[in-house]
Design brief:
Layout: H1 2-34, H2 36-39, H3 45-99, H4 108-129, E1 132-133, E2 136-137, E3 153-155, E4 159-162, E5 169-170, E6 175-179, E7 190-197, E8 202-207, E9 210-215, E10 223-227, E11 230-234, E12 243-251, E13 262-263, E14 269-270, H5 276-279, H6 291-303, H7 307-312, H8 314-397
Antiparallel strand pairs: 1-2, 3-12, 4-5, 4-12, 6-11, 7-8, 7-12, 8-9, 10-11, 13-14
Helix pairs in contact: 1-8, 3-4, 3-8, 4-6
Length: 398
């Protein structure tokens, strides 16, 4: 009888232990299937905290990577446009070399036809400077409006050319040109040539090949009204009738002074893309020459059928080409820096993703270990249960 009581107690204890192990097994299976080990801070507070830290760091790196990705795309697009612009300025240089002489440039019909080519080069550069990526101008700096529009104009500094010399020099102490914001000018870009007739005290003005004579400066200080909101202030009376004065009316840059800085690691920033003010107007790292103005001057010389004036623009055209080459080199350097940081961020992102996954896998390994232990315990309990049942059956038969 004592043996039967003892066996009965063993059977009950074994059954209760198996039920407990069964609950543990179900809990382990739930963790494995639902991932609640990560979701429940009470299960593993340290593992959960690590998981949150990795997630936060990974989100930060991913955000910076998106920023550098977009900046890199803008710079690559800028580099492609600058290369195309440089190629077009080589075409402009070739045009001056071909027609800036008495042989090929002596035919007015050829010069008139070539003026259309000069306009085409200007339009190509104008389009390239207003290039956008995802609705954001590439060369507009931090502003989201188009860098250049023909509704907002500016004038270039007045240049003086003496006789038939192939050089031009600034003459800001003689004439200053201005254009109002609410202008009525058309046929942009404009090239203006002024000559002074000292005997009559009048001026002859040529605008894109259209000549007007006997214009007088009026007012104090004396000004020439060329119409459409364009005026020229006469600061000093020219003394040499062989002098000719030139200026151009071209689109004015509407963007910001510099591009958005590109955020990097540890709060550091890198310079953004070059702007239209640098590329076209020669500011900042530029060469202080207005590319639109030079192309407008080329067009004016061709429309005036003046091959000597066209030849005098050669140095300016070469400076424009060099300015574009400088901007392309600068963009290439900045793009390399951004790409290097972007590559580092990509490596960080991969590393953090791996660490985060390893942290979860470590938790999963612990779960599987518990599962294995529980399974082994149940196997032992099942063996004990069979032994108790067999013993009880034999005792009953006896």
């Amino acid at each position: 009888m004592a043996i039967r009581v003892t066996q009965n107690q063993l059977f009950q204890g074994t059954a209760q232990a198996m039920q407990s192990q069964q609950r543990d097994l179900q809990r382990v299976q739930e963790k494995t299937l639902t991932g609640n080990r990560t979701n429940r801070p009470s299960d593993d507070p340290t593992g959960t905290f690590r998981h949150l830290l990795y997630s936060s760091d990974l989100d930060g790196v991913a955000s910076l990577k998106k920023t550098t990705d977009f900046a890199s795309q803008r710079m690559r697009l800028a580099d492609a446009n600058l290369e195309e612009m440089h190629t077009r300025m080589l075409s402009a240089q070739d045009l001056v070399l071909r027609l800036g002489n008495d042989f090929a440039g002596g035919d007015p019909s050829i010069l008139t036809a070539a003026s259309e080519e000069a306009v085409g080069i200007y339009q190509d550069l104008f389009k390239a400077m207003n290039q956008e990526l995802d609705g954001v101008p590439v060369f507009g700096g931090a502003r989201t409006r188009s860098p250049f529009t023909e509704s907002r104009l500016t004038t270039t500094p007045v240049l003086r050319r003496t006789g038939n010399l192939d050089t031009m020099h600034e003459a800001a102490n003689v004439l200053v040109a201005e254009v109002t914001e609410e202008h009525g000018l058309t046929d942009i870009p404009l090239s203006v040539k002024l000559t002074y007739e000292d005997l009559q005290g009048t001026w002859t003005v040529d605008v894109n090949g259209q000549k007007r004579e006997d214009l007088k400066a009026t007012g104090t200080p004396p000004k020439l009204d060329l119409g459409g909101g364009l005026t020229v202030t006469v600061l000093a009376t020219p003394t040499d009738r062989s002098d000719a004065y030139f200026f151009e009316v071209v689109p004015k840059y509407q963007g910001s002074g510099e591009d958005r800085a590109v955020k990097s690691l540890n709060g550091r920033v890198m310079l953004g893309n070059v702007t239209g003010a640098e590329v076209i107007e020669g500011e900042g790292f530029g060469r202080d020459i207005n590319i639109f103005g030079v192309l407008a001057g080329m067009r004016g010389a061709l429309l005036r059928h003046d091959n000597r004036e066209l030849a005098a623009r050669l140095t300016q055209v070469q400076e424009c080409r060099a300015q574009l080459a400088d901007m392309q080199s600068l963009t290439g350097i900045r793009n390399t820096q951004v790409d290097a940081v972007n590559h580092t961020l990509q490596l960080d992102e991969t590393t953090l993703s791996g660490v985060k996954a390893t942290n979860v896998e470590a938790d999963l390994f612990a779960v599987l270990t518990d599962l294995e232990k529980t399974t082994q315990a149940m196997q032992v309990m099942s063996t004990s249960q069979r032994q108790i049942l067999n013993t009880s059956l034999l005792d009953f038969l006896r």
